[in-house]
Amino acid sequence: MVKPQVIPYDVQGSGQERVLLLHHWFAGRSSFDGMRAHLDGDAYSYAFVDCRGYGEAIDTEGDFTMDEVAGDALAVADHLGWRTFSVLGHSMGGMAAQLMLLNAPSRIRSIIGVSPVPASGLPLVGEAWELFTGAEDNPGNRKAIIDSTTGGRHDDAWLDAMVSSSMGQSSPQAFRAYLDSWSRTDFHVRVQGNPARVFLIAGAHDPVMGAEALQDTWLRWYPNAELEVLEDAGHFAPEEAPRALATAVERALAGPD
Predict the structure, then answer these.
(1) Which is it for strands 17-22 and 44-49: parallel, antiparallel or unpaired?
(2) d(CA 11, CA 103)
(3) Could you tell me if 210 and 110 are in contact, meaning their C-beta atoms sit under 8 angstroms apart?
(4) Is residue 168 a contact partner of residue 196, using CB atoms and an 8 Å limit?
């Protein structure tokens, strides 16, 4: 296993409440760019991280596993001097966030999962597996996945922009290796009954990690989990509904009235 290291990141805001954000499989930390203008930097400090093989870390070598993402993210928190903080994990980032919780339970104040992959992984078989594995170097496969996981609601221009960003921000090697890790890792027995505060945000048009899937996994295993559904989003809420997502995130961080 590669030793954890401080990977590229940037911080927005200067608030006392701290949040570290982990991106999805298709793009690096720039996937959160749309929601930045809607975040409260006076109340919160947000650290946006590029996983190895993405964005500014596209040439960083590694094993490209969820354990590695979790270790690197904790190294970033150490570098920032953050003793405690919340973690927002989008899609595969949601799996890594849970490993951070298991590795450093006293440091994680809460997890916010945005269409998050559960601790059981996401088994893909047959044609679905072929579609996902072929997405390593095939823009058409990436477009088909993005289209299907957002409910077929977006036009070619939007889809093509997502694909172009994805191809430019991820190394094929990392992209392919992370797929094996987030789809085929299963540690759900380790999180069953975990008392952590968990806030789940699903897109109403997400057929993969929508409300039903989260109810069958996350909500069964985390007794203090809550779920909110965004009506105008599929799997890629940061890009599809950035203002609504930012509002939901800060509502979750603020906790009960």
Answers:
(1) parallel
(2) 23
(3) no
(4) no
CA–CA separation, 232 and 249 (whole Å): 15
Strands, DSSP E only, in 13-156?
Answer: 17-22, 44-49, 85-90, 108-114
Q: What domains appear along the chain, each with residue ranges and CATH number?
A: 9-254 (3.40.50.1820)
Please state, in angstroms and rounded to a whole number, the distance separating the CA atoms of residues 167 and 237. Answer: 19
pLDDT at 56: 98
What's the distance, Cα to Cα, between the start and end of the chain in Å?
Answer: 43
The whole-angstrom separation of Cα 15 and Cα 17 is 6
Averaged over successive runs of 10 residues, the pLDDT of the chain (257 residues) comes to 89 97 98 98 98 98 97 98 98 98 97 98 94 96 98 98 97 98 97 98 97 98 98 98 98 81
Residue 127 to residue 176: CA distance in whole angstroms: 16
**Separation of alpha carbons 235 and 205, rounded Å:** 7
